[in-house]
Amino acid sequence: MGAGRRALITTAITVVCAVTVLAAPGIAFASPSPTPTPSTTASSTPVTNKDLEAVRTKLDDLYHDAAVATDAYNAAEEQARKQSAQIVELAKKIVKGQEKLDELKDRAGAAARSQYRTGGLPDEAQLILSDNPQAFLDGAGRILQGQRATKGLIAELTRAQDDLKQYTADASTQWQLLEKNRQAKAAAKKTVTTQIAAAEKLESQLEKKEKERLAALEQQAALKAQTDWLDSGVLKDISGKASAEGKAAVAYATAQLGKPYEWGAEGPKSYDCSGLTSQAWASAGDPIPRTSQEQWKQLPHVDVKDMRPGDLIIYFDDASHVAMYIGDGAIIHAPRPGRTVTIAGAGSMPILGVVRPDA
């Protein structure tokens, strides 16, 4: 293992950082210089744990940024789905509104044709010319009814026209919002794929033994965080029992163990973190928001000491990751690309807070 290998890894981190900057929206730079080929005469200095720790830190950053972008993608997709449904409903209303307007216009036309057949004289004039007293009295009642009907018809026609205009305006607005969310979805997708590709490129620079050492470092970091969390004494205060819905959600999540992480996925073959939690609670009969950030915003918060199996633990300051608490200080979650749905320590990542879908 030569110094050239260390140089290659260091350069790979630098290039990945440059690629990450290039992926930011609204920024354009020239392509980074090609990765230099390591010297074949380099000495046999091994890649140190410090080097691998730098790789681990960078990978964490890349996958975290990918998780944030995945949440943005999922949010845009959910909004686009809702807007598409609203457009369909508005289209139905427009069709019905046009049919109603046509029917009212036919009625108005029939009234006009009837007047034409009587020589164009208004009903009042025809009544005055009548020499039959009973017909006069009967006709007076009909005229009053006809006048009220005419006014009602005009008012209904006006309302139908106004409704049709409003439906059309609403549909136009929803189309604009749909296009905006499609653009947001495309931008988020580009960011996700760029960050994941950069992480995969960085990992590809490592040899098999280095990858094994890197995995060991990741496990050590997670174990240390979990140990520190448990040493705080928090677990002794956690004794909540799962609700019936919580048990059903945990059972669903447990059945997904071993399935691959896939960003934007919500089952049944693969999941991202919030895809797993949202589907688990949907299966329990209690639908929740699709993204980890919206789960954090919209669901009731509970103290960590009060959490019970089925509750969701939100991680990182930006609420970019979510897992399901299953008891005994453990969680089930879909970690990141390249991993599968797994059980981990609840304190293995920085906890932002806990939410309860069935509070």
Provide an overview of this structure:
It contains eight helices and six strands. Helix 1 runs antiparallel to helix 4 (133-204) and helix 6 (244-255) crosses helix 7 (273-283). The longest helix is centred in the middle third of the chain and has 72 residues, at 133-204. The protein has a six-stranded antiparallel sheet. A hairpin with an 8-residue loop joins strand 4 (330-333) and strand 5. The chain has 359 residues and is an alpha+beta fold.
| N-to-C span | 56 Å
- Strand neighbour order, sheet with most strands: 1-6-2-3-4-5
Per DSSP E runs of 2 or more residues, the count of β-strands stands at 6
> Segments where pLDDT lies below 50 for 5+ residues?
18-44
What are the secondary-structure elements, in order, as H or E? HHHHHHHHEEEEEE
Strand content: 5-15%
Computed structural class: alpha+beta
Q: Helical proportion?
A: 55-70%
Shape: elongated
Radius of gyration, in Å, reads 33 Å
- How many helices? The count is 8
Average pLDDT level? 79
How would you characterize the largest beta sheet? 6 strands, antiparallel
Strand and helix map with partners:
Layout: H1 3-22, H2 49-117, H3 123-128, H4 133-204, H5 208-231, H6 244-255, H7 273-283, H8 292-298, E1 301-302, E2 312-315, E3 321-327, E4 330-333, E5 342-345, E6 351-355
Antiparallel strand pairs: 1-6, 2-3, 2-6, 3-4, 4-5
Helix pairs in contact: 1-2, 1-4, 2-4, 2-5, 6-7
